[in-house]
Amino acid sequence: MIVPRETLRRAAASLSLMLDETALDRLDRYAEMLIDYNAHVNLTAITDPEGIALKHFADSLTVLSAVDIPAQARCIDIGTGAGFPGVVLMIARPDLKWTLVDSTAKKLAFIRAVIAELGLDAEVIHARAEELGRSPEYRERFDFATARAVAALGTLCEYCLPFVRPGGYFIAMKGPDADNELAAARTAISILGGGEVDSHHFPLADAADRNLLTIKKLSHTPPKYPRPSAQIARRGLGS
Prior knowledge:
Blueprint: H1 5-14, H2 21-38, H3 49-66, E1 74-78, H4 86-92, E2 97-102, H5 105-118, E3 123-126, H6 129-132, E4 142-147, H7 153-160, E5 164-174, H8 178-191, E6 194-202, E7 210-217, H9 229-234
Parallel strand pairs: 1-2, 1-4, 2-3, 4-5
Antiparallel strand pairs: 5-7, 6-7
């Protein structure tokens, strides 16, 4: 056993969630593989079992506490990295249909190994979000998009909202500065077809507070978005 199960159970309970034994077994094996791979591939700076349980696993589970995701919903995790939150949510809710996207091949090799080891099923894509978001096969095809990334919210919205169908949601996992980021991103959200935004605050034991912003997609994203990455970096929408 790698991760402290009681820690995970308590963290899940604090989010009004329950993890069954199958989910706990899979999370334990996931943590074991994460620690092993991280010895030769830089996946995360958090490698102690308690930290993995709280700062990766419990943090990822906040999505299920903030949003009621229907069975069989089609979801996409942008910049999935080592699988947070996508793989954790897949373990907790195997009924969901996941697409995991990252631009780093070594990280996706780890993701594929985890999925195969745990007997899960997901589409794993090596691509840049701003390019994949223009593909008819993926553009506005998802009920939910998630991102746990360090980019400012306005930038994340340009990467992620093009994947979401009107009526769906983009769930941005942010830190303590979420309200300021939201204020700066209002114009970008509107331009990209987003509408109402709900904010959810989660104080996680022994971990940084998490703020989830759920942005509802109201209308189609204009065809010219997302822009090439250089343009996104050079000038934010509405600036």
